[in-house]
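Student: Hello, beginner here. Can you help me understand the protein record under this note? Any guidance would be welcome.
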Amino acid sequence: MKTTSRNTLRPDWRHVAPALLACAAALSAPAAQADVIDFEQIVSHSSQADSSVYLGGDTFSTNGFLAEVADSDYVQSFPDYEPGLAGATVAESEYTCTRLACPPPLSQYYAGLNDGSLTLSRGDASAFRVSALSFGAIAPRDANELLPFGQLRITGTRLDGSTLTAATDFPALYDWSEWTLNSTFAATVFTRITIDACTYTAASECLNGEDMLNLSQFALDDVHVSAVPEPSTVVLLTAGLLLVAARRLGGRA
């Protein structure tokens, strides 16, 4: 009777290992090349005559993302609320910050005004991560340049609807700063992010609206994001690579 050696049935890991390593490398590789939301090319969905100015409720598209402009929650709670000026784009060729202390426009950027916020979500509704952004403060001309004026805040909404928030102090007026988000925030997958600002009170509270009405404003540029693949894509990739490994193992048996 013909017998089969145990060595014949035992996988030869010298041949299987390269395939498994290739599988692991593919799964650990970035899902897609990182993108930057730079606000250079904007398609406004606003009905305003000036397409660079946005009221609460206006939207625009840029770099594959949908941007939603909103007034502060405090203002929207007013019984007689009407949308007000909440954002604008500031271009290098037409410097529009004539009544405010703004960072210089090295390129076109987004300005969040009068306590307004900006929510960014992918145009194809897929999830994404965010790792860094450039920002600056926008303040009244008579603001004290030596004091921290307030904070920039970013709130991400996870796939399950829960949120994660991070905040950092603004740089000195007229300056830009690069904010690299902490590892926890940068590794989290979001469906959308909302960016706004708060202003310090004399008691060192950071408020948006209320006693600091229309003072929380920010400049935003170069938001670094990366796409996240759909779960089905990961499953298919895993199955395909494991099949390749199995066939290679079978061919060596």
In short: DSSP finds five helices and 17 strands in the chain. The longest strand covers residues 190-200.
